[in-house]
Amino acid sequence: DAGITQSPRHKVTETGTPVTLRCHQTENHRYMYWYRQDPGHGLRLIHYSYGVKDTDKGEVSDGYSVSRSKTEDFLLTLESATSSQTSVYFCAISEYTGELFFGEGSRLTVL
Amino acid sequence: SQQGEEDPQALSIQEGENATMNCSYKTSINNLQWYRQNSGRGLVHLILIRSNEREKHSGRLRVTLDTSKKSSSLLITASRAADTASYFCATDRNDGNNFNKFYFGSGTKLNVKP
After folding, report:
1. B42-82 pLDDT, tens per residue?
2. Could you tell me what percentage of chain B is helix, strand and coil, using 3-state DSSP and rounding each to the nearest 5?
């Protein structure tokens, strides 16, 4: 299995609070991604990174920010969580081959 | 809007039968991939087909790609109960600005009955 660790795996928080999800990889892959998965929507790309400090928006980036200060870490931040951001968040990594390797997901509930 | 859409949304078959899932997409691509997701788990890569390929095989999996119709199909032959999972296609966009940026469809939920 690809070395991808997401933390926390489960989190319950209240509307308006900040939340940071962390993705850590040990594969030294260049590309890192954050997706959210909701019933009926499949996986939707939030942000992705193509190198240290190089990030770009995905389909559903509003309300989310990301940072990548090291190759191995990609952080997803919800500055002020809303109930619509209740979801399962997946981190993925890839190299130039294009194959994505996924983490096990982080389940976030915003009350 | 999503780049890829799978069809059907759900499929129920008997063990031993073949399962076919389809994926349609909207813009030209560099490659198309299929992934599998067991309940409560992350996605696992199954197969990648490039835009200049028409068919690819991997074990019991057969993938076809028709770029003129912007569609792909995934065939699982001689299905097993362990194939029960959701299957997703993922595409990139060949527009020069989105290298290695992948978009997923909503998935096909496959149930293989023993």
Report:
1. 999 999 999 999 999 999 999 999 999 999 999 999 999 99
2. 5, 55, 45
Burial class of residue A95, CB neighbours in 10 A (0-12, 13-18, 19+)? middle
Domains within chain A, CATH numbers bracketed: 4-110 (2.60.40.10)
Name the residue in chain B with its Cα closest to that of A36.
Answer: B104
Structural tokens at position A73 = 């870490």
Q: Domain B4-95+102-113 belongs to what architecture?
A: Sandwich (2.60)
Domain positions in chain B: 4-95+102-113
pLDDT in tens, B73-113: 999 999 999 999 999 999 987 666 656 788 898 899 999 99
Q: Which of B6, B43, B48 sits opposite A102 (nearest CB)?
A: B43
Q: Which one of B26, B30, B104, B108 makes the best mutation probe of the A interface by having the most chain A beta carbons within 10 Å? A: B104
Confidence of residue B1 (pLDDT cuts 50, 70, 90): very low
